[in-house]
Amino acid sequence: MTIDVQAYKELYIRTALELVIAIETFTEALQTNPADEHALSELHRAAHSLKSQSLVMGYPHTGRLAKHIEVTLRQYKDTSTQPEKELLILISSTTEKLKKNIGLIKDGEHEENLDTAIAAFKVFEKTQID
């Protein structure tokens, strides 16, 4: 049995872009209505899925940034609090970085290091993660 790695990569790229679009959409919804629990749940789900898929496929920079988005959002979900405007602006600004990395992956290039973007999330994280 052979595994078609290229087919998995193409599936990853397609679904990763869909997840980034979902992150953008639900971030915008929360900027309009920070009390929208559905948008918060869907935003968290999209970040979680992007994290998981990226790490499984071997794209650690994209996966780690998605993980920090996920963990930060989980804190708000778990405490039923509304995310701050500054956090939503930060998430919005990271979607272009995620799209750029996915484009690099699609083109067969290495991802960019996203440690600077990840560091910006540490202000909002109540628990320390990687």
List the helices and strands and how they pair.
Elements: H1 5-32, H2 37-57, H3 60-79, H4 85-106, H5 115-121
Helix pairs in contact: 1-2, 1-4, 2-3, 3-4, 3-5
Give the low-confidence spans: none
Largest sheet: none
Task: Please state the CA-atom Rg, rounded to the nearest Å.
Answer: 15 Å
Approximately how much beta-strand content do the residues carry? under 5%
Helical run tally: 5
Helix content: over 70%
Order of helices and strands: HHHHH
Separation of the first and last Cα atoms: 36 Å
Class computed from helices, strands and strand pairing? mainly alpha
Strand count: 0
Shape: globular
Overall pLDDT = 94
Question: What would you say this structure looks like, in words?
Answer:
The chain is mainly α and 130 residues long. 75% of the residues lie in helices and 0% in strands. It has helices spanning 5-32, 37-57, 60-79, 85-106, 115-121. Helix 1 runs antiparallel to helix 4 and helix 3 (60-79) packs parallel to helix 5. The protein is globular, with a radius of gyration of 15 Å. The mean pLDDT is 94.
Keywords:
130 residues; mainly alpha
Q: What is the compact description of this entry?
A:
By secondary structure, this protein is mostly helical. It has helices spanning 5-32, 37-57, 60-79, 85-106, 115-121.
